[in-house]
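Service request form, structural biology core

Requester: graduate student, group of Dr. S.
Request type: structure prediction, single chain
Budget code: on file
Notes: please return the result as structure tokens.

Sequence provided:
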Amino acid sequence: MELYGSDNTVTNNIVTGNYYGIYVYYSDNNTITGNTINNNSDNGIHMRTATNNQISENTLNANDQGIHLSLSSNNNTLINNTINDSSDVGFYILSSINNTVAENTLYNNSAYGMYIVSSSHYNTLSNNNINGGDTAGINMDSSTYNTLSGNEVNGDSYGIRLIAAMNSTLTNNNATSDSGTGIYLSYSSNSTLTSNNASDNSGTGIYLSGSVNCVLTDNIVRDNGFYGINMQTDSNNNTLTYNTVSNNSNYGLRLQDSDYCTLADNIVSNNSQSGILLFMSNHNELTNNTVFENTNSGIHLSNSANCTLLDNQVNNSDEYNTGYRYLYLGTSPDNVVTSLLVNDGMAELGFTSNSSYSSIGWASELEYPHPTGKTGINGNYWITTPINMDAEFFYNDTDMNSTTEADIELYVKPLSSSEWNEVAGSSLDTDNNSVSATLTMSGYYALVVSDGSSSGDDDDSPGDSSSGSSTTRSSSSSSSRTSVSPGQDSSIVTSTVTSVKRIISGSEIDYEFSGSDTPVLGVSFDAKDDEGLVVAKVEVLSEAPSGVSQHSSKAYQMMSINVGSEGTISSGNADNIQIRFKVSKGWIEQNNIDITTIRMTRYHDDQWNDLPTYQESEDGEYIYLYAETPGFSIFGVVGDEITASSDQVPASASITEEVAEPVAEKETKDTPGFTALAGVVFVSLVVLTRKNKNLRER
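Core staff response, request fulfilled:
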């Protein structure tokens, strides 16, 4: 069947046993729908220089190629067709632009499911289901500015393969269960991969070769038979953020011969080799990545120089830790490591690497106890061959008085010795919460204080964010111990705490921050969706971010609280979202705050929104509360000053929900004024009970 004119409709035909099933040549604005096209020796539907055609709901079986577009067959729509058992290609697009290929089903096509080649630009491939191509499910070659979204591609050799396909956009595709690589980019620069799932493939999840200036964000890459994400052969200037890379059978995230890349806010876990490997890759930045439970090393640099590692958290359980390392540097000089958090964030280390081989690990205090008369602050570091390594060991001074802090020392137990000794030339900086030293020997390093040192809190107020006063942790620009969320001004972030949880539908999630130096004690919710491993982060802010107004009430603390990337957790996919926090009674008294007005407030939709806030308990120093929130963003803890007309409850007074009733004594002539006194007690109890009720209902 041949079409040469325009505005034709071809419907409900059975076309079989020809060279071409339907041939459309220089023919426009046709509708071809509902046809069955089988066993033709060349193409089921062949379109040449044909534009603005609608090809839909056709079934094409056992042709050489199912549907073929060539030589400026532009602006066509191909939707909801079924193509199977082609001896070559299901869809073939040659030198044709602006076509929409959507909601088609392709299976068991011999070579390729879809093949887009030779300057086929600006095409959109969306929501197609492709299975069983020997070479690739979707293959793009020498074609640019194409968009692939929502496609299900599985059971092929390559799921999605791009060769010289620059400026491509891949979003929400599932490239899974392929016998080779899930998503493959070769010399396909300036491409963007967002929210794709490249998992359960026999080879690598996502592979880049010779591709520069690409952005990979929020992709899930797990359970692959080789690497999770692999970039090599001058794949420079790429940015990888918020990706989850886990349970892969080799390295989780690997760079080889790839420079000036940025790896930030990724979760890399449970991979069978190192979590992150940089091999012969220089000038890269690794920031705020969470790397845990990987075999071999958490982060591994080999022959890689001039990299920056900032605020990365590395942790391994004992099951993975024996004989392995959190950080390994092999012939990798001049790398700046700032705020390396290890052992669930318990300890923090910074240094600049030299050309020697160095390993950073963690050792149990039970296995390697500290010297007699000394108590460890945050456990033992295991450091090998740190030849003249300038290092900083950080500590948390929360609940530590000045006497204890002044007593902090750095000790080392050489690997070849059982004796602990103070590290010569070490220097304590209480403003920066660190001890600096030049390390010259392999061994176990620990920050210690003398036994019997008391601890307390010299200042129980974390500061008034509206006045910009600082917290107990240093917020000077010289300190780099805070990690910063994308878009957040680092100069106003005074401290950070993170926690990682696997979010499974139907589970109760509780991020615990009670050991941190932030007012936030925890974040909890009931998950309704599977989200995988998700990082929760609390950033304490010294002032309001740009564009955020000050709250009209007195501010106790301002914070940024996020669980995953924006929108990962909200009232749409979680119930009972709560933030637990504490407020210092010292701040309440110093600022004459009406305790019943203390609440958490959230900045959303360009305004402050007070959240329902409830008191849980109190002790001598703090009151403990929780707030209910529909989502995460910028938060403040605020309160109002006592006025002449307010019924004030002092911070020192108990406002617990149960108020013990006094033991009544019968009034007699020997107890004058008892009735009046009982009335005063009764009124006081009523005021306290009402105050607490108001707080619960806020």
